[in-house]
């Protein structure tokens, strides 16, 4: 009973943190603002999440759970079109994308609390992207790369577009640019389907 209440309280705090981030952005998402939203003191919040980074990692884990729900084929592999939808969805939530990007940048330093999360996440994401590419193109993409060789490039495009969009949203149309990238992956030449 106590454990269930603690789990429920942690989930409530994560939801509140998501709201605060969406409203105020990464920098404005203070522990005191989140604590106030859930009716706790900052000290009470620290009982559940000892640092702001720990709370933000929990927010990112929750985001990943939401992002990976639905949109899969019967074998559990995402459809490639879902990636384009996810990019569009991310364009509507800059606070979460900013949190992800800021923590990702900081996590490359030794000993950062989010480093393990991102290392584990990228291993999983590369494997997932390889599965998506294999389901779409088979063992070789039109350019000749295997899905495993192309997966890190796909991840780099997704993350790189997010950084460019955050820095200059008026100049970078993230969903359109990702659509252009997907067009590069389509087969060309005789017998290839025509682009819409």
Characterization of the model:
It contains 9 helices and no strands. It starts with a helix and ends in an 11-residue tail after the last helix. 21% of the residues are buried. About 3% of the residues have low confidence. Helix content is 70%, strand content 0%. It is an all-alpha fold and 196 residues long. Helix 1 packs across helix 2, helix 4 crosses helix 6 and helix 6 packs across helix 8. It is elongated and about 60 Å long.
Strand content: under 5%
Shape: elongated
Kindly state the mean pLDDT as a whole number? 86
Specify the structural class.
Answer: mainly alpha
For the biggest sheet, the summary is: none
- Flag low-confidence runs: 70-74
Q: How far do the termini sit from each other?
A: 56 Å
Total DSSP E strands: 0
User: What is the CA-atom radius of gyration, in angstroms?
Assistant: 19 Å
- Regarding quaternary structure, what we see is single chain
Count, helices = 9
Helix content: over 70%
* SSE sequence, one letter per element: HHHHHHHHH
Protein name: TetR/AcrR family transcriptional regulator
Pfam family, one: TetR_N
InterPro entries: BetI_C, Homeodomain-like_sf, HTH-type_TetR-like_transc_reg, HTH_TetR, Tet_transcr_reg_TetR-rel_C_sf
Keywords: DNA-binding, Repressor, Transcription, Transcription regulation
């Amino acid at each position: 009973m106590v454990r269930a209440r603690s789990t429920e309280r942690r989930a409530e705090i994560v939801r509140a943190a998501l709201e605060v981030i969406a409203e105020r952005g990464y920098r404005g998402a203070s522990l005191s603002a989140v604590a106030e939203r859930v009716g706790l003191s900052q000290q009470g919040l620290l009982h559940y999440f000892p640092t702001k980074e720990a709370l933000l990692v929990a927010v990112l884990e929750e985001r990943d759970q939401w992002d990976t729900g639905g949109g899969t084929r019967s074998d559990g592999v995402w459809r490639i079109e879902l990636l384009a939808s996810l990019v569009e969805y991310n364009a509507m939530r800059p606070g979460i994308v900013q949190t992800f990007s800021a923590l990702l940048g900081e996590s490359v330093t030794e000993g950062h609390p989010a480093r393990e999360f991102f290392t584990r996440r990228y291993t999983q994401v590369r494997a997932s992207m390889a599965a998506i590419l294999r389901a779409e193109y088979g063992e070789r993409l039109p350019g000749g790369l295997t899905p495993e060789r192309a997966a890190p490039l796909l991840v780099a495009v997704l993350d790189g577009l997010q950084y460019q969009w955050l820095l200059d949203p008026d100049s970078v149309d993230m969903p359109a640019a990702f659509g252009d990238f997907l067009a590069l992956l389509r087969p060309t030449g005789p017998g290839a389907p025509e682009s819409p």
